[in-house]
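Here is one chain, start to finish.
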Amino acid sequence: MDNIVADVDWGIVARIVHVLAVVVWIGGVWFVTAVILPAMRKKPPEQWLAEFNAVERRFAPQARIAILLVLLSGLYMLYQYDLWDRFSDARYWWMHLMVVVWILFAALLFVLEPLIVHRVIDRRASSSPEATLTLMLRFHRVMLALALLAILAAVGGAHGLF
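Its structure:
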């Protein structure tokens, strides 16, 4: 049994964890953006806000865990494969993009969303529900587009496309 653990390439395990965590995180963002928010347009304001908050309360902890796993596995791969110098090379611009997208989502989920966003959405939704929902959908679309661009760039860059 000791040989099995000793023979494991933990860098590959980190890559698996990284990809699975990105799938959970960005797949959830896709679902909220493409399914949940558009479906809310057909509901009365008090109902869509309550339903969105209920979905968000269930998804946010999962997204936070996934984002932490992306961070930890990414840092491990940087260490394991000694890739730190790539951040000083413009050819690896896609690694910078991954970090920027991670920082944006982490700031949103760990700081802005619990401290500010909920209050702003609740306040705006009571006076202007349609405009609030439209703003939420636009914001989610921008964040999803950035995330998908980072995934496209990372996979392409890691396989020599760029």
